[in-house]
Each structure stands twice: as C-alpha cells, then as structure tokens.
C-alpha cells in the first residue's frame, strides 16, 4: 500500500517557546493570553453557552496522544495500528498537540485552554515516530474511531493521492454518525489533498491573525473552511509552544465541532458540517463559532437561556443603568427588563443594557430580567433594589452661634456640610454634628446627603 508523509507539514511539528480576550469568557489558564485564535473566531463568546460535554468523543487519528494533566479524566483508552497494540501514547508529539488544541481543560489555571473543555479524546495511533504512515492504517483508524462512538474524527494528515480505501473508511464512519475533519495540507497549492478533498469530509485551511490565508496553506474550491493556523499547544512533556499548519487548524475546527455536538437537540454530523460552512465570515473562509451555533436547527430545543444581572447596587437613585449577561446555545433573541411589574425596555443585541428611571420611588422595587432564546424558551431572574429618591429629614437646634444638626434617612445619612457665604467650611461624616457659625456670616445653609446621594438643604442662619 502506498505510503504518505502525514500531518507533519512545514512548521507543523515545531514546538517552540510561546508567550504565555456574548460576554466573552476569560479563562484563568496562563497560556490563554497567547491564544489569538480563540478570540478571532469568537470561541470565547461561545463558551458562555457551551463548553462541550463528556458525551462528545473526538477521535485524534494521528501519532497517538500522551497523558497530560490538561486531558486528565477525558483521555480514553485507544489503539495503536502502527505497533499493533493498545498503547496509543505519542512518540512524536504531533497528536498530543492536536489533542490539546481540541480539548485542553479550560479555566484550571494551568497550561492553555482548549476549544472543547469537556469533550473526551479517543487516541488512535496510525502514524509512526517520524510522522509517516499508510493509507491502510489510517483507514483502519477511522473505522476504529467510528466503531467507538466518535462524534468527530480529526485527521491532521494527508497525501496527494486519492484512495478507494480512504473513501470507504470515510463512508463507513459517516454511516456511523461521525463528522470527518481533515487538513488541507501545507504546500500552498490548489492541488487536492486527501482525505480532505473527499467531498463529504470537512477540509480545513489555515489563516493568520488578520484572517488572511497563510501562504503555506493549500487552497481551492475543495477547501470548505479555514481556521487559525497557529495555535498554542502542549507536547508530551507539557511544554507550551506554537503549533502551526493545517495540522493545527484542523483540531481547532474539530474542537468547535465538539462544541456544536454538545448542544440540544443533538445535531447530526451533516448539520454540524453545514453550520460550520454557513458560519464563514471572511473571503478566506474563516469560521465564526457563535454564527455556527445559530445556524444549527432549533426545532426540539427545550434548553432555556442563561441570564444574570450585571453589577448593580442594592441602593439606587435617579436614572440607573441596568446591565445583563445572557447566553444560549442557539442564540438569545431578546432580553427584557421589568421594574415593579412594568416593562422598562427590550434589548435584542449584546451587550444588554437598560436605562431605568427609578424616581420618584422611595421604596423597595422588584426588578426582573426575562431572556428568550430563538426557540422561545424563557428564563426569568429577579432581584430587589431599594430606590431612594428622597433627601434626609434635617432638624436644627440653635444655641448662640452653635448649630446642632440631626438628620435621619431610611437609607442612612452619609455626611453633613456647613456652607457659609457659598463656601463649604465644615464637612462631617454621619448623621449629627455641631457647627460654630462665624459672626460675620451673611448666608448659612446646612446640607445633608444620604447614602444614595440625595441632598436636603436647610437654612441655618442664626437670628440676632
């Protein structure tokens, strides 16, 4: 059977030192700052509604995958078709890097953040320590992955020749419900590369941070989508480095496919493929993850959106800005704010923000957010705030040139000020105080501020 040089395209196997942004999710992984692809394709926004699921298995058909803390508990037993045993560990590094692009644990304060945090990885070794392999082993690996329930099969490998053997394996995997994602190759040509060029396979090219095609990425009408071509990844030792090539863009797309597969109702491989193709945002074909989520069918969706109030104090006054965060696997259609049972406003685009005039209320007011997804599923969250739009009550007692001031307010009094001839001469924290008024004072007022910021002004000039 014909041999091929698989996966390890120019630059694809280099592991070099790398520097360790919906409402976007900002995971605490130290390597996230260097993962420009996650923000470019808006994976970070999609994380607000889905981060994958353990029921989704992504097969990495490659040089094997070595155990890493980033994959702990989610690396399944696999198969080695090169050495004909069940030890699918990685003796090259290529497959482990692909696996961490797909599924490195997110927000765990170590390493990097993969695309699909909760997806499980099925390691299938079909390439040897030098990155070479046969169509026979690759076909066997594809069939093996399909038989073990892989929803997505990631192939960062390929050759220049078509093969009935590969086509049969791809067809078999698709009949078992798997989506095949494969690298377009790194020769910078439009010549077809296999198995990516098999029509039903999702062929992936690589793009730069600006969204343009990398010169080394193969291209042509047979390339279905593109994705970030350089991604932070971890090799078998755990070292973080830049992993470049369509070998890197492919597991990125496979991870996104895993996110889509984790939604409800569970989409078919054909629906995931169609959604990814429909999400292309630039002439270079770069995927956009929130757009792909919205492109999935919504019939049968019973999952309600998530919604939460943004920062707002328990004590408010006057015109108040109320913000909200909302997310849904298929997209939020609108968010509404109610105050005291009355509709204040509706916002249909993120970031969600509402202007509420709390005056003239001085009372506890129930606020309510209602979020609707595209299917019409509704989530309601409530909270109460104290609207205070009335200044403190102020009482004065005069004795000679001394003013004794006492102020009261349900929200509490923040401070008192003595203003003489238009200038503040004394400022005291709290609700009471004594002030000595200068003998030549022409105009004297006392100001009292409550904790909401309301002001009461009282004439404090002494007689005689």
TrEMBL record:
SUPFAM superfamilies: Subtilisin-like (SSF52743). The active site is at 62 (charge relay system), 94 (charge relay system), 247 (charge relay system). Residues 54-280 form the Peptidase S8/S53 domain. Keywords: Hydrolase, Protease, Serine protease, Signal. The keyword Protease applies. The keyword Hydrolase applies. Residues 1-22 form the signal peptide. It holds the Pfam family Peptidase_S8. PANTHER family: CEREVISIN-RELATED, PEPTIDASE S8. Belongs to the peptidase S8 family. This is S8 family serine peptidase. It comes from Paractinoplanes hotanensis.
